[in-house]
Amino acid sequence: MPIYDNSVEPILKSLLNKSSLKVPSCINLFFSGLGESELATRVTEITSNINNNVEFGYCLKPGGIILRCTGDESIVTEISNKIIKELEMYYLGDGIDSLPLSVVHALSKKDRTLAVAESCTGGYLTSLLTDVPGSSDVFNVGYITYSNHFKKELLNVSSDLLNNHGAVSAEVATAMAEGCLNQSNASYALSITGIAGPGGGSMDKPVGTVYISLASKFNETLVEKKIYQTSRLLFKEKVAMYALNLVRESLLSS
Fold first, then answer.
1. 190-209: per-residue pLDDT in tens?
2. Which fold has domain 2-90?
């Protein structure tokens, strides 16, 4: 563009070369497990006693939030380090820009492995994990047990549990995770069972209901209930990311 090249760029270069002007520095920090408003509140609290001209921006992405810190390089670095220290359990790590990458790196660092058993997400979680280079070192197997028959056949979920509680239940999610752990001999096993919609819901279990369970060789089996009433694709994304964050938090605490 001749106008920019001949007129605008020389002026910008001249201004930036003046000693009184500094090019702003920008640091991006990726957090998971906090909502946007909660993260913003925490950042305000952490930086309230610091005299600075740093600007903060928040950008949602699957599995977390990117916090962008912009300002003078020395101040941005100081404040970013302080935020990381205070919110360490939510920080995914230097140079990491996705939750699946964070989980794969954390598993590799601790020499541990993961297996998954999926129903309503239909392999979405497995896909997220195997998209990460090096995941073959930590990912053992992914079961897609969409039908009750294969929940019983592959994961040893009992007919009594399915008949008494239904496939979408805490009891079945727990049995799926523990069956997956036993079958795969992994360090951790995740299971997901739910109702993606738009049909299939009830008064007790509305569309969007999902149970996510994490079994491991180190702790008691955990199971959590969530409700995500959205499109099928976004439902899968939210559920898979929540499940991955359970693994990340477990790795941090072990």
1. 999 999 999 998 999 999 99
2. Alpha-Beta Plaits (3.30.70)
